[in-house]
Each structure stands twice: as structure tokens, then as C-alpha cells.
Design goal:
It is a single chain. This protein has one domain: PPM-type phosphatase domain (Phosphatase 2c, domain 1), CATH 3.60.40.10. The protein has helices at 47-69, 74-95, 143-149, 155-160, 197-200, 205-212, 218-231, and strands at residues 7-15, 25-30, 35-42, 103-112, 115-121, 125-130, 133-136, 180-185, 191-195, 238-246. The strands form two sheets. Strands 1-10-9-6-7 form a five-stranded antiparallel beta sheet. Strands 2-3-4-5-8 form a five-stranded antiparallel beta sheet, with helices on one face. The chain is α+β, with helices and mostly antiparallel strands. It has seven helices and ten strands. The chain is globular, with a radius of gyration of 17 Å.
């Protein structure tokens, strides 16, 4: 069976929301190289902003540079990019005590024709909208979500839990980290949403799906998602990136 040769369009919007004094989210993408990254930083002072920016820069640098040389398979390169970002953040925090403890979540998508790889660490998510159905592709690395998956907590209990902000895996907080990496096949018309929890804490999956089917441009859809999250409370920074597969 032949696999369609696809190309991709992308857009992204980030906003500090209504409650936070600064924006610790970061994003970056290269449509030409098929690399898309969203991060949500954490840490005191400006440390979260540093961690998320470093992570985006390292992943783009590693994947864009190596892909042009065709030196290795993409899944291995993607993991190499994660390890490089983790090392850069961790070592920088070790050298500067004001950055101690900084880290960031990350969700990334790497595409080559119809082949797509998704990577994630933390609770930033990747969704896919296909023929009107929204599916969460990633699993959150958070305490409450892991409790839900083990049947020790209900979804409603998780939503009310004072521990819902506890992340069990992040870039830069330890010397080594293991990302989730998996591959899938894209189809024409698929829309991938990469987002931070500032969106998913405010909007249900159904609300997100409804907004994504409004038929607007990717830029307008991103802005609509952000504005809806702000209207619902905007308690955290909000970042949305949309990537659409086309023939």
C-alpha cells in the first residue's frame, strides 16, 4: 500500500493569560524540516522562561541540523534532541544557583511525509483531530493523571486535587530523563494540536473539538482557542500550536 506524500501548514499563539505576571511558555517550529515544539517552563524568577526557551532552541537545533545531513533515523534523532535539551537546562541550573530547580514540560511533533513521531515529557499535550473526532495522543506525566490511570483516583477527584500541578517528569530537573516517543501515520486533513496545560485546564476536549471545527485559518483557530481559555479563567500561560497535514 502506498503512503501519501504530505506537506504541512502550521501556526501558533502564546499568551500569558489573565493571572500570571509573565509568560513561561515557549514554542518554535520549522515547517521546512517538519519540527514543531511547545514547552511550559517552571521555576522561580525567570527560570521557567529560561528553561522553556533553551529546550525549544536545543530541539530545533538538533533536529534541523541533523535531518539535513540524513545521518540517523528520526526517532533516534528525536530522542537525541530531548537528551541535548535536558543536559543544557540541567547544566545551566548547576552553574547558576538562581536557576536551581528550573525545568520545563515539552511536547513535540516531527513529520516526514506521512510519518509522524510525537514526543512528550510532562503535561503539555498533543491531540489529533481526524474527521471531526478529537483524540488525545499523549499521556500526562503528572501525579493525578497517573493516579487516574491506575484507578486510584476518579477524573473529578483529579480535577479538584490540590496536587494537580505536580509533574512527575520534566526536562532539566534531573541529569537524565526518559521521554515518551511513538510514531503514527498522518492522513490528509489531520490537524495536530500541541498545547500547554493553560489550555486544557480551562477547556474540555469537547470545547476544543468544537472550536477546531469552525473552518477558520490555523492562525485564527489558535487565537480562538487562546481567547476561549482566557474567557474561561486564564489562570495560566496558554500556548496553542496547530499543524495540518495536506496533500
Amino acid at each position: 500500500m502506498s503512503i501519501a506524500v504530505l506537506h504541512y501548514l502550521a501556526a501558533a499563539v502564546t499568551d500569558r493569560g489573565r493571572k500570571r505576571p509573565s509568560n513561561e511558555d515557549a514554542f518554535g517550529f520549522s515547517v521546512e524540516d517538519g519540527v514543531y515544539v511547545v514547552c511550559d517552563g517552571m521555576g522561580g524568577a525567570a527560570a521557567g522562561e529560561v528553561a522553556s526557551s533553551v529546550a525549544v532552541d536545543e530541539v530545533l537545533h538538533t533536529l534541523v541540523g541533523h535531518r539535513s545531513n540524513g545521518t540517523a533515523a528520526l526517532p533516534a534523532l528525536a530522542e537525541e534532541a530531548i537528551f541535548a535539551a535536558n543536559h543544557a537546562i540541567f547544566s545551566r541550573a548547576q552553574r547558576n544557583h538562581r536557576l536551581n530547580g528550573m525545568g520545563t514540560t515539552m511536547v513535540a511533533l516531527v513529520a516526514e511525509d506521512a510519518h509522524v513521531w510525537v514526543l512528550n515529557i510532562g503535561d503539555s499535550r498533543c491531540y489529533r483531530l481526524r474527521r471531526g473526532r478529537l483524540e488525545q495522543l499523549t499521556l500526562d506525566h503528572s501525579l493525578v493523571e497517573e493516579q487516574v490511570r491506575m484507578g486510584r483516583m476518579t477524573r473529578s477527584e483529579a480535577h479538584r486535587s490540590p496536587l494537580k500541578n505536580v509533574i512527575t517528569r520534566a526536562l532539566g530537573t534531573q541529569s537524565r530523563v526518559t521521554p515518551d516517543v511513538f510514531g503514527l501515520e498522518a492522513e490528509p486533513g489531520d490537524v495536530f494540536l500541541l498545547c500547554t496545560d493553560g489550555l486544557t485546564r480551562e477547556l474540555s476536549d469537547q470545547a476544543i473539538a468544537d472550536l477546531l471545527q469552525q473552518g477558520s485559518s490555523l492562525e485564527d483557530l489558535c487565537q480562538s482557542l487562546v481567547e476561549a481559555a482566557k474567557k474561561a479563567g486564564g489562570h495560566d500561560n496558554i500556548t496553542c500550536m496547530l499543524v495540518r497535514a495536506e496533500i
